[in-house]
Amino acid sequence: MKRGIRFKLIIFLLAATIIPFGISIISIYIYTKNSVVNRFVKNNHVLINKSGSDLKNYFEEINNIPLSIYTNRPYLEVLENGATEFIDKNQFEINRNLLNLYFNRREIEQMHLYIERGKDDFSVYNAKVSGRGKLLNFNDFPIYKTLMKDEQFVEIESTHDIKSYNDLSDFRVKPAKQVISFHYRLMNVTTDQLLGFLSIDVRLDRIKEIFDRIYDKNREHLYVLDEDGSVFYSSNGNRIGEKLTNSWYKEINNTKVEKGQYDFEGKNKHFKGVYVSDQVKASGKTWTIIKSIPYTNLYQDANKILIINITIGAISVLFVTVLTILVSVKFTNPIHTLIRNIKRIEEGELAVSFDSLGDDEFGQLGQHFTSMIEKINDLYIKEYKLQIENKTNQLKVLQSQINPHFLYNSLQSIGTLSLKNDGKKVYKLLTSLSKIMRYSMRNNEDFVRVVDEINHIKDYLALQNERYDGKFEFKLNVDEHLYFTRMPKMTLQPLVENYFKHGFERKQNLGMLEISISKFDFDTMCIKLMDNGVGVDQKKLEKIQFSLMNQEKSQKESIGLKNINDRIQLYYGEKGKFFIESKQHEHFIVTIYLPLHVDRGAIENESVNY
To answer: Which of 52, 119, 162, 343 stands the most exposed, by the fewest C-beta atoms within 10 Å?
Structure first.
């Protein structure tokens, strides 16, 4: 399909609208996405930092629990002197103070007290103080051994399953609860005497409250790690207590970034997103908080904005498209109207089917076009009528040419024959002559059937044969299927007469004339006349051909050929062809190609096949 101006105009207007709009949407989306991502990451850093501060405060609250021991002088004396002295009194004091410490916070699951003097130890579990036990060597507990070497008075044991101290507690609940253990070294601050150790096992309730509020449980994950990389707390409970060895953790651990920037971008089959991390120092240790955020969360707001922009853009593009099509159709309608009328004019219909194309430049073009067609129509009608009258007069002159000479010669022949008393032959020749005269006088028709033209030629040749006493022969080869096909009247007779005038009379030997009419192709008829006359040389042949192609006056000997060629061009236009060829002293050939189906107003040329 040809790309017209309407199509190009629509494409151009749509491109001029959609491309900038699309670039704008993409630019806004990229800017919004980056802005939202940066803001989202910064907000998460703030949340992580706030949770780190809450964790630090919580650890300080737990660390303040043992300080009450130093303000309780009776309890402090028990620790200094041991539990075995005044056992009843000291047992009561130990139980009372341990329970006070135990009920200090609801998330305390177990407490253990070891008294260095006397090697006695006690446990509190499930709100009950155990009986007195003996811990002969505190080095059996690695954590206590570490506390003795460490400058810190507290050591935090990362999340683990609760365990019994010196088998003093009886755990019957399975599976075992997970706890964080705070181990304290109790000292006499004035004498630096080791009083013992206090261990507090805390459930993860408060830790869970601190961190569960800063991540989306359905799509995000959180990890709180100690200095060894062990999971202190996680959104995935199964990983608590494990040691992280993931590649992304190693990458984060080795990357130093400023606050407010995401630490590491993860892209693998399990996770696509970013990891935001921060660190907090509490109780002498550094704790790392890592939050994984998938792209779906990061781009959620940006995608919502994109959907809104695309929706608005789609509506706008639809509106622009409809408006563009309407404007294009309105703009190109006058052009299409002009093209339709030009095509009608090309087909020979000189008519204009529009009144006005508007008041703009198209309207002016339509007015000038209408005025031009009216003038062309007037000139065409005048010229056409002039040509028809001219050709009609030429035909009449051609028909009248045979009267003086041909009638004289024919009548002379008939008279000579009558002297010889050959009555039947006289009758036949007179009949042929009358047919020729009758055919010539049918001036009201320009087209005749092929069979009529052939019969006319037969009568004409019969008279010429008698005139020249049988000194020539002729052949007629006509396709019977073309008998009722119409052709221009008086097409063959001037060509045959031209043969007798210029070719036969100058030749001494027997004359030969061959006429054939056949189908050339599906829609064309071929008429061919070939004689063995004297012919013409190449120079004269070129002159005749030149006169046939131009409007200048023809030579006297080629006026008949010129007349036939002009009539063919008038009736058939480019569809009709007229060719001549000749070789001197050998032959002269005329070939005519006529279309089988032609409609020229009242003149209808149609083929009837049998």
So the answer is: 343
- Cβ atoms of 144 and 103 within 8 Å: the answer is no
| Pair 124, 99: CB distance under 8 Å | yes
Strands 128-129 and 120-125: antiparallel
E strands, 189-301, are: 193-203, 221-225, 231-234, 264-267, 272-282, 285-294
Q: What are phi and psi of 523, to 5 degrees?
A: -125, 20
Half-sphere exposure of 225 (CA within 13 A, CB side): 23
Q: Is 183 helix (H, G, I), strand (E, B) or coil?
A: strand
Nearest 10 degrees: Cα torsion 499, 501, 504, 506: -140
The H or E element containing residue 412 is helix 361-419
Q: Are 387 and 567 in contact (CB under 8 A)?
A: no
Structure tokens at 50: 């706030």
Is residue 526 within 8 A of residue 520, CB to CB? The reply is yes
Q: How many CA atoms lie within 13 A of 476 on its CB side?
A: 16
The candidate with the shortest Cα–Cα distance to 262, out of 251, 210, 271, is 251
Q: How far apart, in whole angstroms, are the C-alpha atoms of residue 394 and residue 390?
A: 6
Average pLDDT (173-178) is 80
Cβ partners under 8 Å of residue 263, min gap 6: 252, 255, 257, 274, 275, 276, 277, 290
CB 112 within 8 A of CB 123: yes
Closest by CA to 413, choosing from 348, 358, 466, 461, is 466
Greatest Cα pair distance in the chain: 192
User: Which residue blocks in 103-218 are alpha helix, DSSP H?
Assistant: 142-149, 205-212
Give yes or no for residue 604 having a pLDDT over 60.
no
Beta-bridge mates of residue 603: 600
201 beta partners: 110, 181
pLDDT at 404 over 60: no
pTM: 0.52
Nearest to 561 by CA among 583, 572, 546, 539: 546
Alpha-carbon Rg for the chain, nearest whole angstrom, is 61
Fill in the amino acid letter for 242: E
What pLDDT shows up at residue 578? 93
* Distance in angstroms (rounded) separating the CA atoms of residues 134 and 168: 10
pLDDT in tens, 116-169: 888 889 999 988 998 888 887 877 788 888 888 877 789 988 888 899 888 888
Decide: helix, strand or coil at residue 137.
Answer: coil
More confident residue, 379 or 512: 512
- Please enumerate in sequence order all residues whose Cβ is within 8 A of that of 36, keeping only pairs 6 or more positions apart, or say none: 298, 299, 301, 302
The per-residue pLDDT for range 162-171, each reduced to its tens digit, is 998 888 888 7
Q: Identify the burial level of 463 via C-beta atoms within 10 angstroms of its C-beta, where 0-12 means exposed, 13-18 middle and 19 or more buried.
A: buried
